[in-house]
Structures are given as structure tokens and as C-alpha cells.
Amino acid sequence: FISLSLTNQLTSKASFKRFSNLIVVLLKCVRALSVEPKTLKKLDREQAIVTLMPLLEQKQPAYDNQIFDEAIECMYYLCRIDRSRQELAARNGLILHLKGCITQNKTHLNQFTFPLICDLAYTSAQTREELWRCDGVVFYLSILQHNKWRISALNALTVWLANDIDRVEPVLTLPNNCEILIKCFVECLAVKEAKQRQETKDEVRSFDQICEALLRLSIKSSRLSVILGRDKIFVNVLVNRLNSQCDSTLARICLLKMLGQVVTTEAFLGEGIFGVLRALAVDESQVLISTISKNILKRVASTLVMY
């Protein structure tokens, strides 16, 4: 582990200026070691994460961008399968570096930065605390504009919400943030409709996952559920999509459950929802969808009787 030892000695300003090419070579050696599972424990003993972190913090004119790139790749391979290393990296400042990398649009590093920052929501309470200090909820919401990574961000938000609802829910349900969630859902449907005839299995699965993630968010947050149910655009798109009958069974089940979760009794009376539910309830070709529709109708009917 001479590579780590030398790298640690070359992090001074003078060394960066003279030996940046050597640092890049050493980092490539560390990266090659970090992709091999058998060497990870040895890298832990050499404090690889702590040693490499200063390479992400250099602000000197002589700083070679390739050093940053190689260091990010090393962090990814060191942290991708181990929660304790993820927590250690988060405590030592990795989150801010990942955020900066993403916001600066360093797209060549996306395959490392996006998965790593989204994984941190699963790691531990301490890691989520570090995310909180870095305004992580809002940052996860900003990731929804990136089509390839929006599912990872939604799932990260769901996990974080389940573990810390008292802090996450108030941020998640701010007007601007709810608008981001609604826009994500509506745009996803619009893209799906535009590609309807040439849709791939991956695109179908992606839409299913977005529906599942939004359903989980609405179930875990009653406040978010109420806000979504009061948004006419969200409800109209949801009902129209159910009425179109052009999604997978899984997506339609999620949309139905979401409808039952978020829509108020008053909305059922005013948005033409009853007709859609009745049609689904009598369609015995899809038993589960029919059963869910009947249950929603029964629940709404019993509520109306109470009125």
C-alpha cells in the first residue's frame, strides 16, 4: 500500500504543483485495488478514505482536474458496498463534494456521483444527519430533473422520510417542493405517452418504479397526500391515465392505490372519478384492479353516507 502512503505525502501545495502527474498514477493504482473485494479491508486499515479526502478539497491553480476525477472514482469503489465506509466518507465531507460535482455538471462522473449520493440515505442515522446539514432533501428533489436518476432520488427520499418524518416531511411539503414532485409525475406521463408505440421494457419498468415511489411517499406522509389530492392537475392526470388503460398492471395498481390514498371525498364528486372506478370495478379481466376499484368505491360510498 505504498500508493496510499505516497499519496498522503504528496497532498501539500508544493507537492501538488510538482507531482500532479504522479498523484494521478498513484490514484489509478488505488482505484485498481479498490475494485478488488479482497483488498478493501486492507485499504480500510490504511485509512484510504481519510487519506484521499484532501484530494477532493484542493482549490489551488495547479490542481489537476484528473486528480479529482480519479479520487471520486476511488471513493465510489470504496463505498459502494459497505455502509460503514459510506458513513465514514460522509462524516469527512464527501457529500458536499458530490453535490458540487453534480451541480457543476461533470457528466463524465455521473455514473459514480449519483448512485453514491442516493445510497447515503440508506446508510445510517449519522449519514442522514450529514445529508440534512447539506440540505439533502432539497438536493434529492433537484435530482428529479435528471431522468436517469429520478427513481434513485425518489427512493432515497422515501427511505429518509420513513426514518425521519418530523424533519423531512415539512421540507418535502413546501409549495415549491410539492410542485417539483407533481411536475416529475406529470412529465413522466407526458414522455411515456409520446413514446407509447416504441416503448422499451426499461421505459415501462422506469414508469412503474416512479409510480411505486410516489405511492410510498404519499402513504408515509399524510400531509403530502392531502396536498397531492388537492392539486387539480395531479388528480386530472392521474384519473386520465387510469382511464386510458395503456399502462402495465403494476402501474395501474399503483395509480389506483394513489388515487384512493390522496383524493378527498369532495374530489370524487367533482372530478368524474366515479365513472372511471366503476368501469375498472366491472372489468373482471384484471381481478386485482377490479377488487381495488370496488374497495375504493365502497369506502367513498360509506363516507358519503356519513355526510
Task: Summarize this structure briefly.
This protein has helices at residues 2-9, 13-34, 40-45, 48-52, 65-79, 83-91, 94-103, 110-123, 125-133, 136-143, 150-163, 165-172, 175-194, 201-220, 222-230, 232-244, 249-262, 265-270, 273-281, 287-306. It has 307 residues and is an all-alpha fold.
Could you walk me through the main structural features you see in this protein, from its secondary elements to its overall organization?
This protein is mostly helical and 307 residues long. It is built from 20 helices and no strands. The protein has helices at residues 2-9, 13-34, 40-45, 48-52, 65-79, 83-91, 94-103, 110-123, 125-133, 136-143, 150-163, 165-172, 175-194, 201-220, 222-230, 232-244, 249-262, 265-270, 273-281, 287-306. Helix 1 packs antiparallel against helix 2 (13-34) and helix 6 (83-91) packs parallel to helix 9. The longest helix is centred in the first third of the chain and has 22 residues, at 13-34. The chain is elongated, with a radius of gyration of 24 Å. The termini are far apart. The model has no long low-confidence stretch (mean pLDDT 84).
Structure keywords:
20 helices; 307 residues; elongated; 78% helix
Layout of SSEs?
Elements: H1 2-9, H2 13-34, H3 40-45, H4 48-52, H5 65-79, H6 83-91, H7 94-103, H8 110-123, H9 125-133, H10 136-143, H11 150-163, H12 165-172, H13 175-194, H14 201-220, H15 222-230, H16 232-244, H17 249-262, H18 265-270, H19 273-281, H20 287-306
Helix pairs in contact: 1-2, 2-5, 6-9, 7-8, 8-9, 8-11, 10-11, 11-12, 11-14, 13-14, 13-16, 14-15, 14-17, 16-17, 17-20, 19-20
